[in-house]
Each structure stands twice: as C-alpha cells, then as structure tokens.
C-alpha cells in the first residue's frame, strides 16, 4: 500500500535511503499513524504493543529536526531500564547513520559517572537514559537541557510502575517549554493520563490494536 511507504513522509533522501538499507520497506501501523503528526511538530500519545516499531517512530521523528553542528542535547529519551535504554540507543544509532556525525549517548545507572561525564563534555546530540541517572547529571550540572527540542517518554507505563513520576517531573522542569513531547506506552493506565495532562500540549492520540 502506497500510504505506508516512508517516501510519503517529509524525510531527507539520505534518511529514506538508510531506511531502505535497514530493510524497512514500509511503515508499521504505529509508524504510519504517528509519524505525520510527529514530523508536523505535534505532541503525541502513542499506544501500541511491544514489537510494533515504536522506537523508529520516535527515532525518525527526533532525528528529522536535529542539527548535527550544534553539540548540545537536542533530544532526550527516557526509558525505564538500562537494557531498554541501550536497545533504544542502538536503534537510534542505526537510524542516525544517514544524518552525518550524530552522537547518541546512553546515560544509565549502575556504571561510574566518570566516562559518562567525559562523553558529555565532548557533546552529545541525543541522550537516552533512565530517569534516576539523568536527574543526577542535571543536579551535577554535567547535562544541560536548555537546547532540547524533543522529549520522549518511552515505555511510560513501566516508568510509572517503577515509581519514576517525580523524577520525570523534575527532569521536565529543566526543559524548555517550547519542546515537543512524545509519550509511548504499551498500555494506558490512569497515571498516563495524568502525566499527559500535566506535561503534553494538545497531544494527538494514536492507538494501534494488536498486530494479529
Ligand atoms: P516496540 O518499541 O514497539 O516494542 P521496536 O521499536 O523495538 O518495538 O521494534 C521491533 C522490531 O521491529 C525491531 O527489531 C525493529 O528494528 C523492527 N522494525 C521497526 N520498524 C520497522 C519497519 N518499518 N520495517 C521492518 N522492521 C521494523
Ligand atoms: Mg519500545
């Protein structure tokens, strides 16, 4: 179906070629529904099952407006665990191959601060991390979010289950009000509505039922 072709989106030729090289022949349903509003700059709440391609949906979205010449954090993806953050960082690095020299840094707990601080000093365009460690870097002043364009709350339902609401709220307090906020979740418990009502502006809502 032509409506699911990535080429219907306002993406660079380099990104389209990269998606083809990755074997992404067509958009998955959540990508087809969420990418048009994301690329138009809208806030978004997207709900779809695990394995439906949510990472590429927000990944393509956050890379599109990114300026590789500005070495500040332009996009922040918050994830519930280190394993998920590392998976997201890996997928973002694959997607970013088209964009030239884009630095994607994973910032999670359970490892020493030193190397993370060194990497931050060299500059990172995109940070993927767990709320606790990101908050600690903000407190130390080793991470600044004043140039942030895109904030992604990935697996928001799990982050709430793990008690990260206050951390998320504190992190968001250090981001510019004009940011774009994208919330991705596999389920839609009541806490998500509160999170969205507090931190998203007129979000588009996209829900994709089971793939099978
Ligand atoms: P979710 O976050 O929804 O659980 P992921 O983003 O981890 O799902 O994606 C699941 C798998 O689908 C990954 O291996 C990813 O590389 C692959 N994938 C994503 N988008 C596409 C696409 N358009 N075509 C083919 N494979 C895709
Ligand atoms: Mg995911």
Automatic annotation (TrEMBL):
<protein>
    <submittedName>
        <fullName>ATP-dependent RNA helicase DbpA</fullName>
    </submittedName>
</protein>
<feature type="domain" description="DEAD-box RNA helicase Q">
    <location>
        <begin position="4"/>
        <end position="32"/>
    </location>
</feature>
<feature type="domain" description="Helicase ATP-binding">
    <location>
        <begin position="35"/>
        <end position="206"/>
    </location>
</feature>
<feature type="short sequence motif" description="Q motif">
    <location>
        <begin position="4"/>
        <end position="32"/>
    </location>
</feature>
<comment type="similarity">
    <text>Belongs to the DEAD box helicase family.</text>
</comment>
């Amino acid at each position: 179906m032509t409506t699911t072709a990535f080429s219907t989106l306002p993406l660079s030729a380099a990104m389209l070629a990269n998606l083809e090289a990755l074997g992404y022949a067509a958009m998955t349903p959540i990508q087809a529904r969420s990418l048009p509003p994301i690329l138009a700059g809208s806030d978004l709440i997207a709900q779809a099952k695990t394995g439906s391609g949510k990472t590429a949906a927000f990944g393509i979205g956050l890379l599109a407006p990114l300026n590789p010449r500005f070495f500040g954090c332009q996009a922040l993806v918050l994830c519930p665990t280190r394993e998920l953050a590392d998976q997201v960082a890996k997928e973002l690095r694959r997607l970013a191959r088209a964009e030239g020299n884009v630095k994607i840094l994973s910032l999670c707990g359970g490892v020493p601060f030193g190397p993370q601080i060194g990497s931050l000093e060299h500059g990172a365009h995109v940070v993927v991390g767990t709320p606790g460690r990101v908050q600690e870097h903000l407190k130390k002043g080793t991470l600044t979010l004043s140039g942030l364009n895109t904030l992604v709350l990935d697996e928001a339902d799990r982050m709430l289950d793990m008690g990260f609401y206050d951390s998320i709220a504190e992190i968001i307090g250090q981001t510019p009000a004009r940011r774009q906020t994208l919330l991705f979740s596999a389920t839609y418990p009541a806490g998500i509505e509160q999170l969205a009502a507090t931190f998203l502006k007129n979000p588009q809502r996209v829900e994709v039922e089971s793939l099978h």
